[in-house]
Amino acid sequence: MNIPLPDAVVSFVHDFISHDESIKYLEALSTEVAWKQNQIKMFGKVYNEPRLTAWYGDQGLSYKYSGIQLLSTAWSDLLNELKSKVNAAASTEFNSALLNYYRDGQDSMGYHQDNEPELGQNPVIASLTFGAARTFQLKHITDKTIKRKDILLNSGSLLIMAGTTQHYWKHQIPKTKKPIGPRLNITFRVIKDVDNRPQ
Ligand SMILES: O=C(O)CCC(=O)C(=O)O
Ligand SMILES: [Mn+2]
């Protein structure tokens, strides 16, 4: 289903993965993934990121994160399975994925654009959710008259952002006071820079 927004190409599939399969993926990925809590520097202070993350990709892919060069972890069978399904739905050959684990309603991700140079001009980003439903908020960057768009990302749903979305819109997962369980998110990406390989 297309979500009509100015200056953006966003689509949403409510039940991309079935309820039972989603439970299976949540349980399996929660334990098999080597989750890490990274630290970020903000205004000269060091903070723990308010969520756990992991980075998977084709062999040899690396990316820069807060000045450090990180190597991707090789795809597991489960993640390969999901990648094939998402590739077909998004008509894109994804070669990497950032995984996010929100332990409870206090874990979050602040407003940002997925506009790292290695993602190229108009990146296609496909975001899969398992576990607790969280609100995904999109805010137009330059036109303050455009209303914020909230999308409830339920378990098994797939959100695809493409076109100029990352130029004109920021997105976030805000904290919630609701007592909720963990949510696991996978954002599939294409890393374009072929020189982006370790020596
Ligand atoms: O958890 C989400 O749905 C959003 C994740 C996200 O925006 C990102 O990984 O860049
Ligand atoms: Mn993002």
Task: Outline the structure in words.
A hairpin with a 2-residue loop joins β3 and β4. The strands form four sheets. A seven-stranded antiparallel sheet has the order 1-2-13-10-15-8-5. It is an alpha+beta fold and 199 residues long. It has a single domain, classed as Sandwich (Jelly Rolls). It contains three helices and 15 strands. The model has no long low-confidence stretch (mean pLDDT 93). The radius of gyration is 16 Å and the shape is globular. The site of 2-oxoglutaric acid has 11 residues, from β8, β14 and β15.
What's this model, at a glance?
This protein is α+β, with helices and mostly antiparallel strands and 199 residues long. It has helices at 19-32, 77-90, 165-168, and strands at 2-3, 9-13, 39-42, 45-48, 52-57, 62-65, 68-71, 96-102, 109-112, 125-131, 134-140, 149-153, 158-162, 169-173, 183-189.
- Bound ligands: 2-oxoglutaric acid, manganese (II) ion
Share of helical residues: 10-25%
Q: The CATH topology is what? A: Jelly Rolls
Q: Could you name the CATH homologous superfamily?
A: Alpha-ketoglutarate-dependent dioxygenase AlkB-like
Find the count of extended strands (DSSP E, 2+ residues): 15
Return the string of H and E elements. Answer: EEHEEEEEHEEEEEEHEE
Q: What is the SS-derived class?
A: alpha+beta
Largest sheet: 7 strands, antiparallel
Q: Extract low-pLDDT stretches.
A: none
Radius of gyration: 16 Å
Indicate how many domains the architecture comprises: 1
Strand fraction equals: 35-45%
Average pLDDT number: 93
Number of helical segments? 3
